[in-house]
Amino acid sequence: MRRGPSAFNIASVALGLVFLYAPIVVLVIYSFNDSRSVAVWGGFSTRWYAALFRDQQLLDAIGVTLRVGAISATLATLVGTMAAVALVRGGRFRGRTALAGGVYATLVMPEVILGLSLLFLFVSLGLPRGFWTVTLSHATLTLAYATVVIQARLATFDPALEEAAQDLGCPPWKAFMLVTLPGIAPAVAAAWILAFTLSLDDLVIASFTSGPGATTLPMRLYSAVRLGVDPKINAVSTLLIGLVATGVVAAYLVQQRRRARN
């Protein structure tokens, strides 16, 4: 006879969830606070959302952040897919250890060191700091995470399916595109979402590699908080939470639909 969860287990899970999500819930609630003070509840209002959409600097920062996140996540996912294929399907080729070490180095390297290294690289190459330096830096940061996610799925994918397609006359690249890639598509989508989320969250590397016209939203929020907590920060943070949560839920629903179809 199976026993249900104990009271201790239920309490532990409840406390863990409260510890993780209570600050987020408070932030969302106070984004609808009518009072300018973040410590005093002045009634329900959407005035700060209206003020947010009148703040051109914040809107520009949001636009830069979304563009940087989308492009860097796409680059990281493409390169991460190729790196995962090389590590899983490439066997013990010369340079495999260097490739794996180079890819995984950013997982353990402090962001301060990575940002400073990228800054020195761009300066030595004579590249002006701006939108593309931030984008390339975020792609470098998120490449390892995308590779790990895709590699884990590719390692469990049956290569016999791709070999069967090649036996039927399909070229290797076409067999990968038509057989393997659809099979690992949920992992590729998860890698893109993870890379996009990490790009939205980054402050340290963007601070080193950004320039005029490339101020991201975390940089703008950090500079605003140093001068005092503006209620518009709660509003824009709530919108970001909703954006990320919508992406995660959509990815989960797509994956569940694929499983039900199969």
Can you walk me through this structure?
By secondary structure, the protein is mainly alpha-helical. The chain has a single domain (54-261), classed as MetI-like (MetI-like fold). Helices cover 77% and strands 0% of the residues. It has 12 helices and no strands. α3 (56-89) packs across α9 and α9 packs antiparallel against α12.
Which terms would index this structure?
262 residues, mainly alpha, MetI-like fold, 77% helix, globular
List the helices and strands and how they pair.
Blueprint: H1 7-30, H2 47-52, H3 56-89, H4 96-108, H5 111-125, H6 131-155, H7 159-167, H8 172-183, H9 185-201, H10 204-209, H11 217-226, H12 231-261
Helix pairs in contact: 1-12, 3-6, 3-9, 3-11, 4-6, 6-9, 7-8, 9-12
